[in-house]
């Protein structure tokens, strides 16, 4: 038997709902990974030793272990100590923190690369170190690091499929549901692949716009 | 509050980097409205001295006083940070490499600190930016990013940024050294204008002609000491010290 896409339209609602959930978890996790990445970078560079150490352990944990395991830990593990998170929230936190650690590495390098004269000029005007970081150093570092962070965000979109295993009915799980009823894996996985591709195109377009805006201020 | 009578007073300033002594017991008084040039070979400590005045390079020993308040007071860390931030609001600084904020427009460069530190409204901030930029002749570039300015325009913007905080004292650290020769004059003109408005200025410079024409006093520094100081007519035309003479021979005779 060959490919038969005639079964697909009946499941389009499920698939599109899956697309929406994929976009929702990608966007929220991306925001968490961005803000978290900045905070982690500033802590890693400027916090006192005693504060830095637990965060180093945290970074090691998230870089050194599989994302899938991290999702299991957050979703199934935390229940044991009385923290019962909805699947979406667990997925959002897991994905967001995982990529926050990667973003933080990029942002740290970029902060170090900002010319020391920038901090001096800001301090000379009377800004505190925190104000200078917030208004002068970090915005420049983030600006420099937007393209590689964009790459991380594309990886985040693809890895969002992993949250299907903790029961978030995003695109991959939606396709699996349809397959379970119709026994048509090839068709529905292809449909899901096309959907990921389209979301990807959308994300790249947004990233390009942001990069172009940044380029104007150089 | 203090026993100073001078506007700026540096008392027995010493500065070490490890074993290297960069400043060796320097004392200096500057009166309100005075313009003082610091000249000397590179490595003589003149920039370090200038940067000690707003504590950008803290002294190892000695005191810096501004308008009756000690700048480098001994205070616990948090209190000191608060104190020094307040002091720096009164001391404008202009750098050799401009150090404009590249992610902000000219307008935003000028208004950022007043908005953040003095809480002025957007409307007042815009008025302030226009006023300060008109003053340095840069009003037509108000919405440009620094990357689109020439070196001279960048430095004039940096001066406007410093002036927007309404400082009592301006420090210039080789403000024209990084500029193409044909752009030096436009920055010098702005500095002359400030001089006419009786801004107190301390200027580290390699430009002897400018120092001679604008400044009330010239300090010649070498190897961490103030070797000679006095009015420009005396220091430039009739220096007492051999080291001053040797330095001036190189920079006055040879250069042009």
Task: Reconstruct the topology from this structure.
The complex is a heterodimer of chains A (218) and B (256).
Chain A: H1 12-46, H2 49-64, H3 67-80, H4 87-113, H5 116-124, H6 129-159, H7 171-182, H8 185-216
Chain B: E1 8-17, E2 20-30, E3 35-39, H1 46-53, E4 61-66, E5 69-70, H2 77-89, E6 91-94, H3 106-118, H4 122-135, H5 151-163, E7 169-173, H6 181-196, E8 200-204, H7 208-214, E9 217-222, E10 225-230, H8 232-237, H9 242-254
Parallel strand pairs in B: 3-8, 3-9, 6-7, 7-8
Antiparallel strand pairs in B: 1-2, 1-4, 4-5, 9-10
Helix pairs in contact in B: 3-4, 3-5, 4-5, 5-6
Protein name (chain B): Amino acid ABC transporter ATP-binding protein, PAAT family
GO molecular function, one term (chain B): ATP hydrolysis activity
Domain ABC transporter (chain B): 8-248
Overview of the molecule:
Chain B: Keywords: Amino-acid transport, ATP-binding, Cell membrane, Membrane, Nucleotide-binding, Transport. Chain B: Pfam families: ABC_tran. Chain B: It comes from Aliiruegeria lutimaris. The complex is a heterodimer of chains A (218) and B (256). Chain A has helices at 12-46, 49-64, 67-80, 87-113, 116-124, 129-159, 171-182, 185-216. Chain A is mostly helical and 218 residues long. Chain A has a single domain (5-217), classed as Orthogonal Bundle (MetI-like fold), CATH 1.10.3720. Chain A is flat, with a radius of gyration of 21 Å. Chain B is α/β, with parallel strands linked by helices and 256 residues long. Chain B has helices at residues 46-53, 77-89, 106-118, 122-135, 151-163, 181-196, 208-214, 232-237, 242-254, and strands spanning 8-17, 20-30, 35-39, 61-66, 69-70, 91-94, 169-173, 200-204, 217-222, 225-230. In chain B, the strands form 2 sheets. Chain B has a 6-stranded mixed sheet, sandwiched between helices. Chain B has a 4-stranded antiparallel sheet with strand order 2-1-4-5, with helices on one face. In chain B, helix 3 runs parallel beside helix 5 and helix 4 (122-135) packs across helix 5 (151-163). The longest helix of chain B is centred in the last third of the chain and has 16 residues, at 181-196. The mean pLDDT of chain B is 92. At the A-B interface, helix 5 and helix 6 of A face helix 2, strand 6, helix 3 and helix 5 of B.
């Amino acid at each position: 038997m060959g490919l038969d896409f005639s079964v697909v339209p009946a499941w389009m609602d499920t698939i599109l709902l899956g697309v929406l959930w994929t976009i929702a978890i990608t966007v929220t996790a991306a925001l968490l990974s961005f803000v978290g990445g900045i905070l982690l970078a500033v802590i890693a560079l400027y916090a006192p030793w005693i504060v830095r150490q637990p965060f180093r352990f945290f970074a090691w944990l998230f870089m050194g272990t599989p994302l899938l395991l991290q999702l299991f830990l957050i979703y199934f593990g935390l229940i044991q100590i009385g923290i019962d998170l909805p699947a979406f929230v667990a997925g959002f936190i897991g994905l967001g923190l995982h990529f926050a650690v990667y973003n933080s590495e990029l942002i740290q390098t970029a902060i170090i690369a900002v010319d020391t004269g920038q901090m001096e000029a800001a301090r000379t005007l009377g800004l505190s170190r925190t104000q200078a970081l917030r208004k002068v150093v970090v915005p420049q570092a983030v600006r420099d690091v937007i393209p590689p962070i964009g790459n991380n965000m594309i990886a985040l979109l693809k890895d969002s499929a992993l949250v299907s295993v903790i029961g978030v009915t995003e695109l991959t799980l939606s396709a699996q549901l349809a397959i379970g009823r119709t026994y048509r894996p090839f068709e529905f996985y292809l449909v899901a692949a096309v959907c990921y591709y389209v979301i990807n195109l959308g994300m790249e377009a947004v990233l390009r716009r942001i990069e172009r805006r940044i380029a104007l201020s150089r | 509050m203090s026993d100073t009578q001078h506007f700026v007073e540096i008392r027995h300033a010493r500065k070490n980097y490890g074993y290297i002594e960069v400043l060796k017991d320097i004392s200096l008084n500057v009166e309100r409205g005075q313009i003082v040039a610091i000249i000397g070979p590179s490595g003589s400590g003149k920039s370090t001295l200038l940067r000690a005045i707003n504590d950008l390079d803290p002294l190892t020993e000695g005191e810096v006083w501004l308008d009756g308040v000690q700048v480098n007071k001994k205070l616990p860390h948090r209190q000191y940070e608060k104190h020094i931030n307040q002091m720096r609001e009164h001391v404008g600084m202009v750098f050799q490499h401009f150090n404009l904020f590249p992610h902000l427009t000219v307008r935003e460069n000028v208004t950022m600190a007043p908005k953040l530190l003095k809480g002025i409204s957007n409307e007042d901030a815009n008025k302030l930016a226009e006023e300060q930029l008109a003053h340095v002749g840069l009003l037509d570039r108000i919405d440009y990013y620094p990357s689109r300015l020439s070196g001279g325009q960048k430095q004039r913007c940096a001066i406007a940024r410093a002036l927007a905080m309404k400082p009592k004292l301006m420090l210039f650290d080789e403000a024209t050294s990084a500029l193409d020769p044909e752009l030096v004059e436009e920055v010098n003109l702005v500095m002359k204008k400030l001089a006419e408005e009786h801004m107190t200025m301390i200027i580290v410079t390699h430009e002897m002609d400018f120092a001679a024409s604008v400044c009330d006093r010239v300090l010649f520094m070498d190897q961490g000491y103030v070797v000679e100081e006095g009015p420009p007519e005396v220091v430039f035309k009739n220096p007492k010290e051999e080291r001053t003479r040797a330095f001036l021979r190189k920079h006055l005779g040879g250069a042009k």
